[in-house]
Specification:
Elements (H helix, E strand, L loop, with lengths): L5 E4 H15 L3 E5 L9 H6 L4 E3 L4 H13 L3 E7 H4 L4 H10 L5 E5 L17 H6 L5 E3 L4 H14 L3 E4 L4 E3 L14 E4 L4 E5 L3 H14 L4 E5 L2 E3 L3 H10 L2 E9 L4 H11 L6 E6 L9 H7 L4 H17 L1
Parallel strand pairs: 2-3, 2-4, 4-5, 5-7, 6-7, 10-11, 10-13, 13-14
Antiparallel strand pairs: 1-8, 6-12, 9-11
């Protein structure tokens, strides 16, 4: 891969994709909870005033109204901060969307620790865990602008309950336009047989940079972008585990119930044992500060992942 270029925030890519879709399909509807600004949908609302609904700070109403619109054939994207969308509105997501099989696309914005200094009330490090436990919902976590555009386009075509998770920062381009994107299939960014990084969302770039640094030391890494959490690409994970000595999972989420435990469960149920480290937010009062400082504190940065890989491989060699 050539040196990566910095793109736009995934939320901007999401909004631009929404505009392109709405221009071709009047059934595309955005529903927001006082979040058209933070969701980058102000231009969408100005261009398509008949295709946006504002419910105010009322996330439970947001999901209920989105389900009602979807039941009439509209292609609905319900946009709200992920911390509130998946906690305050969980009952509506479970019953009105998933149990009732209403094809709402739930868009969780400013996810993970994107809100930084606003602290734990605004961190969304639970969303993947709670939604994975609910039947009848797809879960996607795009890693760059390409994955974002493909995820939104895919969601608009699926006609199924879907959750898409976005952070706030500008994202580096990880893929070419020729890359194949498919729900339920991960994407291999780098191939190596020493160690595997399995990452999702904004952490994929950090894993890739850590792999580049390790390669300079002679350690060759596989890097997987697992944009699809549900359905999950078990085949790619097992194929990777069969050829690598160790594995590190990386996520901007609690270490409980997210990508890491999904990988660990998959490997165990298929009888595959290898050294595994889950990197994410531990079970403690999360430190407060800018997202980059939180990443550094918990070893989610490229430097932190580099050190974790070194320690894991050293431990493997000593056993």
């Amino acid at each position: 891969m050539k040196d990566m270029e910095l793109g736009i925030p995934n939320l901007v890519a999401f909004a631009e994709t929404m505009e392109a879709l709405a221009a071709e399909d009047k059934d595309i509807i955005a529903v927001t909870s006082d979040s058209r600004g933070s969701g980058k949908l102000k231009p969408f609302g100005e261009r398509f005033p008949q295709q946006i609904v504002e419910v105010g700070i009322a996330e439970q109403n947001l999901v209920g109204m989105a389900a009602g619109l979807a039941s009439t054939g509209k292609k609905v994207f319900a946009v709200s901060p992920s911390c509130f969308l998946t906690a305050r509105s969980l009952e509506q997501i479970k019953n009105d969307v998933c149990y009732s099989d209403n094809p709402v696309n739930l868009v969780g914005i400013s996810a993970g620790v994107s809100y930084g200094a606003l602290g734990s009330t605004h961190h969304s490090i639970h969303d993947l865990a709670v939604l994975r436990a609910i039947n009848n919902i797809n879960i996607m976590v795009p890693a760059d602008n390409f994955e974002t555009q493909k995820a939104i386009t895919t969601a608009a075509q699926l006609n199924e309950p879907t959750f898409i998770r976005f952070g706030k920062r500008p994202m580096y381009h990880l893929h070419s336009s020729a890359t194949k994107f498919e729900l339920g299939k991960g994407i291999k960014l780098k191939d190596g047989s020493d160690l595997a990084f399995v990452a999702t969302g904004e952490t994929v770039y950090h894993a890739y940079k850590a792999a580049e640094a390790l390669e300079k030391d002679g350690t060759h890494c596989t890097v997987l972008s697992m944009h699809s959490i549900k359905p999950f690409d078990e085949a790619l994970l097992l194929e990777t585990a069969n050829k690598c000595q160790a594995m590190i999972t990386v996520e901007e989420h609690s270490i409980y119930g997210g990508l890491g435990e999904l990988c660990a469960s998959t490997l165990m149920q298929h009888g595959k044992a290898l050294p595994l480290k889950i990197v994410g937010i531990p079970d403690e009062y999360t430190v407060t500060g800018p997202q980059v400082d939180i990443f550094n504190h918990y070893g989610i940065s490229p430097e932190g992942l580099y050190q974790t890989a070194k320690s894991l491989l050293l431990s493997e060699l000593s056993t």
